[in-house]
Amino acid sequence: MNPARRNPRSSGLRTAASAAAVALAATGLAALPSSASAAADGIVVQYRTSASGASADQSEPWLKVRNAGSASVPLSGVKVRYYFKADSPSAAYRFACSWAVKGCANITGTFGTLANPTATADRYLEIGFTAGAGSLAPGADTGDMQLRFHQSSWASLVQSDDYSFGPDRTAYGDWSKVTAHVSGATVWGEAPGGSGPTDPPDPTDPPGDAPTLFDDFDYSSHTDPRIGANGWSVRSNSGGPGVPGATWDPANVTFASQSGNSVMNLETSTAGTGASTEHTEILTKSMKFRNGTYASRVKFSDAPRSGPDGDRIVQTFFTINDLKAPMADDYAEYDFEYLPNGGWGEPANILYTTSWETYRPDPWEAVNAHSEVRASYAGWHDLVVTIDDHRITYYVDGQPFGTHGAAYLPERPMSINFNQWLIDLQGQPSTTPRAYDQQVDYVLHVKDQVLTPAQVNAMVGAYRGAGTSFEDTVPAG
């Protein structure tokens, strides 16, 4: 993943907003988190350490999650937190998985800060699971998760003052100083001082009358004047990311009716040369979006619409602002990126979610956190990312996909973007023309409110039920 690729109210609308609030109030959202928490009441976390010294090059919390309950628990909804005291206020940490029965590719690790620090904890390492980790049947456990973390500088770290550290725990055993959470509820353990990271809002609360962008992409063509009037720009300027010499052709953004909804199509094509390659992008003209909920329904494609397959293509939904200088600390970017044919060292299908703090293009240096699943995501998918004052959380089809900590929160507003482009021409050397499609059903942003995927679906349904194809009440700036 390489951000250098980025070159970078009418009465009807008020009626739609009211309809959205009514629809949300009427939905049975309470059943979703309560049933998940009930199923996870039997979650137990076991711990041991393979680095028992008072100080060490790296901390090695090895964990197992066990289901002592009577119902199966999807691991993608479970978060485990290990609490520690930072070695200095500016210390940065990196997570690694050495080995895991569930597979390190199915385990994520991100860092966050405590809302109420104590003498033994002001940070936490949060362990999560991708959908590929599966579920825990009653009586089952994850098996070994041999995890570790270290200072980014590789300076020695002090463990003896860390809340969750147990120097004498050289064999697995239940450990209440590590907590487990499902749907924002603590289901195992006790956080330091009886406090923990600020939990997200109750997902049963309706979002209310927050500033919102909703677009159903109900346009006639890329020349439709409403596209610009509604705040969008269809890219035509040259430059990266992707194949050198490629163009960005606005005519490749088209619109059509599909299953009763208007759908936007982004086409990317090539005949195996830079001059024949056409990338596609649409983005908001304004960078005015920061915290809150971002959502879209996107159709990814594994194969070209025509011509030979194999190109290293990237299909995206993301938010971003401009890099003002190498390693500038006010840069921000939050990505869904699907690579159907691999790329960036990956041999096959992979879906990334990535949260960027900053980067330097030359020599290359990046500060980010990412989660990934190596599987096909061909077809329609509901993509949601929420940003609050403590974390960034990604969902795919209603299930948690990755959570990244406070170090990656945005300092400035961003634009909302969709694009499709080729990393290079090495994946498919043929000079036979081929074309790839990425489709987008809608986009939604709700300012400063964290919504569940169920609430997103209810809002979109309410807008469509009211016949509203566009609304933008998000203030500029």
Overall mean pLDDT stands at: 87
CA radius of gyration is: 23 Å
Shape: globular
* Secondary structure: helix percent: under 10%
Total DSSP E strands? 31
Largest sheet composition: 9 strands, antiparallel
User: In terms of quaternary structure, what is this?
Assistant: single chain
3D structure, described in words:
With 477 residues, this protein is mainly β. 9% of the residues lie in helices and 42% in strands. The protein is built from 4 helices and 31 strands. The strands form 6 sheets. Strands 15, 18, 19, 21, 26, 27, 28, 30 and 31 form a 9-stranded antiparallel sheet that branches. Strands 16, 17, 20, 22, 23, 24, 25 and 29 form an 8-stranded mixed sheet that branches. Strands 6-10-3-1-12 form a 5-stranded antiparallel sheet, with no helix packed on it. α1 packs across α4. The chain is globular, with a radius of gyration of 23 Å. 47% of the residues are buried.
